[in-house]
Design a protein that fits this description.
alpha+beta, 14 strands, 550 residues, single chain
Length: 550
């Protein structure tokens, strides 16, 4: 009886609320402003909840707290597709274009004219650069031969040997070119140089067929049966480390600004890869979402990438049966995903992420080399919205254009001299260095979704908590307690066959607890000893340190 009375009271309250909303008058036309009629279906409610969460991420004031907010749903991390710069499966280009929403093009004819055009040998700057580059190449090979002769140096594998030699060549060429070009190209005096820096990025991709376990789970629920075959979002985590990267405080000028109608037509040309990425050979792992462009967000003005040099040593492991075409597509795939990930991480430090769209384009230049063969790419990031319905409805696309591998030299002779040096490859490399970053935006325009910095917080305890939590997530250290595991005997005797019905139910699966649903803030708080406890030491509320999760 009491339960029925309570239900009637709730119904009356609900009707009064609706009546009060319906009587609100709009000041513009003096007519009632009725509440919006929302779709009550399960799918619509899930979409509204996701949109609300994305808006909450956008409203978070600082860069560090935005990343913490993205990681809040998972204490043990997300299940992500492992993208990296050392593994490219066969026929990976369509998947890479789908997962980055990238249109691939060749470098325009103007770049080819730079390679083949006027006799720039007469240019004293080019002649000086050519002489210094040849000298740097000869020195790099001589130094590598010296390293091989060192005692206890061991014999590295072919991949490791190429990485070591290419690292030396790239560093020496960068030193030589900065020294020669910086006098006439003042922007090179301001670049920040990173060696073997961390490039990591996290994003969500829609339009992928659901795995078998997801289909089976939805078919077992009455309200989700009709959605069992709907496409799902896959989370992607890129991890890479280039030989060398250059950053500047200004942006490179965008080289393509298509109209909306043209972008819509281009988006229809994007390859769609709906299959599970594991069908190609990609693996999955569990980790927290990280976005690291090679530096920390606080106190660094050089927020925009200029050039990055990527390794192609792992291509030696590809079977020759894959053919030259797949070799070229592998280079394209590496350029696309490394460029996209680096720009996404930079955008994250400016307040954007995979759920909050860019408000301006970002550009970078990528070089893939083994010391002798050089591939040049330019990338323009226009959009970050790849999840859910945006995979089909988003009119924006990203652009990548590049060259085939160009030999910088044929070989280094026995007497240490460079043979058959290629001026065309050097001209293209010089073109990347002399490309002046000229766009400088105001803080409000550059970071429209960042309201403040953690240093603006007056509470020192809050600043310390946010900084430590952010760096712990970025470190990707495992939790001190491992994820609960279902042992094989438990699956056999407790789950598949109920043979231990009288045994006390203490395990998480017996108590209907899903450890993957544990949120980031579900943990024991740090205890504060009485001697340093603020206020009255007997106050039980001050026994534990306060947390400041967004």
């Amino acid at each position: 009886m009491l339960k029925l009375k309570r239900v009637n009271q709730l119904r009356a309250t609900y009707k009064r609320c609706l009546a009060g909303q319906s009587l609100q008058l709009s000041p513009a036309d003096n007519e009632p402003a009725y509440p919006e009629i929302q779709d009550p279906s399960f799918r619509a409610r899930k979409q509204r909840d996701a949109a609300d969460w994305h808006e909450e991420i956008r409203q978070v004031p600082t860069v560090e707290e935005k990343l913490i907010k993205i990681n809040m749903p998972r204490y043990y991390g997300f299940k992500v597709v492992d993208f990296n710069d050392s593994k490219i499966p066969y026929n990976a280009l369509p998947l890479t274009q789908h997962y980055t929403r990238t249109i691939l093009e060749d470098l325009p004819a103007s770049s080819e004219k730079v390679e083949q055009g006027d006799k720039t040998e007469e240019d004293p700057l080019f002649k000086a650069a050519r002489e210094d580059v040849i000298e740097a190449l000869e020195f790099a090979h001589d130094y590598y031969r010296h390293l091989e002769k060192l005692p206890n140096s061991g014999k590295p594998s072919a991949v490791e040997s190429e990485r070591i030699l290419t690292q030396i060549i790239v560093e020496q060429l960068n030193r030589a070119l900065l020294q020669v070009l910086s006098e006439e190209n003042k922007h090179l005096n301001e670049v920040e140089v990173d060696y073997n820096s961390r490039h990591e990025a996290f994003w969500a991709v829609g339009g992928v067929d659901p795995p078998k376990n997801v289909q089976k789970s939805k078919k077992g629920r009455e309200w989700q049966k009709d959605q069992a075959n709907d496409s799902v979002d896959r989370l992607v985590q890129y991890t890479g480390s280039p030989y060398l990267s250059l950053r500047h405080r200004k942006q490179l000028t965008p080289w393509k600004t298509p109209a909306e109608s043209e972008s819509i037509e281009l988006s229809k040309q994007l390859p769609i890869f709906k299959h599970d990425p594991r069908t190609l050979g990609y693996t999955t792992k569990h980790q927290h979402a990280t976005n690291v462009p090679g530096y920390w967000p606080k106190g660094n003005e050089h927020n925009f990438g200029l050039i990055s040099f990527q390794s192609r040593a792992h291509l030696q492991l590809r079977p020759a049966s894959f053919g030259d075409r797949d070799q070229q597509e592998a280079l394209h795939s590496l350029a696309i995903k490394s460029s996209y990930a680096w720009l996404l991480a930079q955008a994250n430090y400016n307040g954007f992420n995979t759920y909050n769209e860019l408000t301006y384009p970002m550009n970078t230049q990528t070089v893939i080399t083994n010391g002798r063969e050089w591939s040049f790419y330019e990338y323009q990031l226009n959009t970050l919205l790849l999840h859910g319905k945006h995979q089909e409805e988003n009119p924006r696309v990203n652009f990548c254009r590049g060259t085939k591998p160009l030999p910088l030299y044929a070989e280094i002779s026995a007497n240490g001299k460079c043979v058959d040096f290629n001026d065309a490859a050097l001209r293209q490399l010089l073109k990347f260095y002399v490309n002046v970053p000229s766009i400088q935006r105001s803080i409000a325009e550059q970071q429209p979704y960042v309201a403040s910095d953690i240093s603006a917080y007056e509470n020192a305890e809050q600043r310390d908590f946010i900084s430590k939590t952010f760096k712990y997530l970025a470190s990707n250290r495992p939790r001190h307690l491992e994820l609960p595991e279902i042992y094989l005997w438990e699956k056999l005797y407790k789950i598949d066959n109920n043979t231990r019905a009288m045994e006390a139910k203490r395990r998480f699966f017996e108590l209907d607890i899903n450890p993957w649903r544990r949120t980031l803030d579900k943990h024991d708080k740090e205890y504060v000893p009485k001697a340093i406890r603020p206020g009255v030491y007997k106050n039980r509320e001050n026994r534990y340190k306060r947390t400041y999760y967004p």
